[in-house]
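Troubleshooting: if your tokenizer reports a length mismatch, compare your output against this known-good record of 319 residues.
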Amino acid sequence: MDALHEAALIAARDCMGIQNHEQVLVVTDTPTRKIGQALFDVCVDLCQEVFMLEMIPRRTNGEEPPEAVAEMMKRVEVVIAATSTSITHTPARRNACRAGARVGTMPGITEEVMIRTMRADYHRVARLTYRVRDILSKGKTAHLTSNNGTDITLPIEGSVAIASTGLILERGTFGNLPSGEAYLMPQEGKAEGVFVVDGSMAGIGLVQEPIRITVEQGMAVKIEGGREARQLEAKLQQVGPAARNLAELGVGTNYMAKITGKILEDEKVLGTVHLALGNNVSMGGTVNVPFHVDGIITSPTLIIDGRPLLENGQLRVED
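Known-good structure output:
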């Protein structure tokens, strides 16, 4: 078995916990066809029935898959979506979970990322992720700073953080593969300050010139920087005002991940924080827009109610 199939087997057998009585759907698109095929191949020996649906790539992260794909997602026990753009924050994924499916999404996955990051000890990643989740869930105020100019305050009281551990074993649950992050929705309309994306930006890739985003009343009101900032501004204008909503605060917990320009991996990097704009419905919010993009902040300091969760990129939590 080659390295890609070994990684696919870990994803299907260990992370998704596929059983021999279950039906599994692999969703893929043209750029991720080889990964989808590897997942299909390993599932043949794990489950009762496996299907693979290849669709035309969506234009942006958060865009709904075709109706036929969405319908099929509700009719199986397990969905693994290895796609070039994210369907994590879509009605199709939410409806599949409501129907009882376990859904693992792999937006922007590449063979290199798959082979490297699926070798992590996901039980160790899970322990760390749960610790971070509990701290975020109990918090009232998050204050995020960085040497690049980030200085933003995010009210988080009442928000329940989600632990994306890479172990998607319970009916109706979902998460990314590879995984390793704890995240929540800041209170809508209340975040104030500036954050500077210096790692990577979903849909854009590695950031050559940091993107400076000014937030007022929970909305991104100014985007400054170079070429990448102009790209982000154009995407926001294309979708509309709701795309500017500050949707997510997340903390990476995967010690095997590294920043490569693929947001699926980048947002999991241990010692980073990411803030996202756009859709927050999957986290309990009200902003339902076909857009969700994460920006990675490297070497951050994140203070929760006066106590450091990260200091200059060092996580102050033990697994």
